User: Fold this.
Amino acid sequence: MKVPLALIRASLMVALQYRGDFAFELLTGVVRTFGRVMPLVLVYGHTTSISGWTADEAMLVMGFFLVMTAFHEGLMEPNLGEVVEAVRQGTLDLWLLKPADAQLFVSIRRVDPAYLWDVFAAFAVLGLATWRVGVPGPLDVIVAFLLLGCGLSAMYGLWLLAICTSFWFIRVDNLRFLLLSIADAGRWPVSVFSGWARVLFVAVVPVALVTTFPAEAMRGAWGWELVAVAFTVAAAFLVVSRLAWTRALASYTSASS
Amino acid sequence: MILAHLRTFPTLFRISVASLVAYRAEMVIWILSTTLPLVMLALWNAVTADGPVAGFDQNGMTRYFVCTLIVRQLTGAWILWELNYDIRSGALSQKLLKPIHPLWYAALTMVGAMPFRMLVQTPLLLAVVLWRPEAWRTPSLAEVSLFVVSVALAWLLSYLSQAFFGSLAFFMDRSMGLWSVWFALWMLFSGYIAPLGVFPAWTATALKWSPFNALLGVPVQILGGFTTPHDAVPLVLAQLAWVVVAWVLVAFTWRRGLQSYGAVGA
Assistant:
């Protein structure tokens, strides 16, 4: 626990040093959020329900989607994204020498506080949507956040897997942009898509675990099989990505030395 | 000057193809990452299941997003990231030494990549057409010729806007942040997520003449037959006007930028 805290403190100090940039990032964050929520407003301007989801319920999905993007852009991309470059240039050596687990270190080395806005916006949208849908029971909320945790873990595993490919291939780091563009579909309830696409969003790019599953829980429409699926997928991604990471490190030969 | 640059095109085309062949996996991944129109198609398909929205039925929506997918591929550019990296790392110095302007060089290689991009996209397009053959509509000769002009202008505008935001890296550290704002607005207002007709009436009128519509919407509307060629001519002229504006902006920032360029690492 000491390692994460120290890393967060260092990130905050950097952010406070570049205050102008921080303010600018906040501003762009507002536009980003606006751009993400507007399509929802636009679509529901023409209908009251899509595949069984009302506007307010779809806003729950959007809220969880915003949590995911904040998690991705504020934590995963600044950290895991840099591993690719570090592998190519050989600077990964320096990180491997740190007295902490290498996977932990490359995953949370830097936290970008500018994305605090995105976290705030995500919970504002979630709060508003919850209030409009009807306040859920305590068990529903607990299950929702449990599912969210599973979803984020699974996405993290997927990201780590994508990063690991860069140890063997040079120019596949854009794989994560492809995954990101697929994950973008997660802003809509997964029942909008047809059968095979649904499997894709649950098991391959498990974005439905992050967005639709918790939203189902919040509107009280969850079952234990949903929880079981989420746990299985999350566990599979975490284990496989951990194995891939150790294999990748074992084959790392350091480019510079 | 333009003619002299165009003479280099066959060579640059060969370079472009060679680099595509060398890094084909990377290219295929890039091309496949513009699948958002298919997501939006699935969504609008669900919305229009109960009846048409703003004149678009399910077939209309299918045709609209297939055209969007095509136009998005044909107007793809990536000079922004190249320029941003080159300016920050100092790699630009080397490119400035070449006897061809770096912006021309990049533009011509990107045009060279176009046939390959369409080729990769073809199976996806075929799949959609097979899924809903009723959506097919053969465009007239007038539409096709106007489309060619319009999509060329859209590509040029897309390239120039990226070159503009890219060359802002000469002056500021957060130029990519500015781009992300521009991109968010583009996403919303270009017709990428929804046809303009779906927007509230007053927004639709304003957006019709905006650079966002010029970047994507206009060629899509022409190819899909959502406007008559006669009505589309003023929109194509508006595209031309935006290209001129962007060209002037890029020429200005590029000249001023080179003066302040520090050539990191040189």
In short: Chain A has twelve helices and two strands. Chain A has one domain: 2-250.
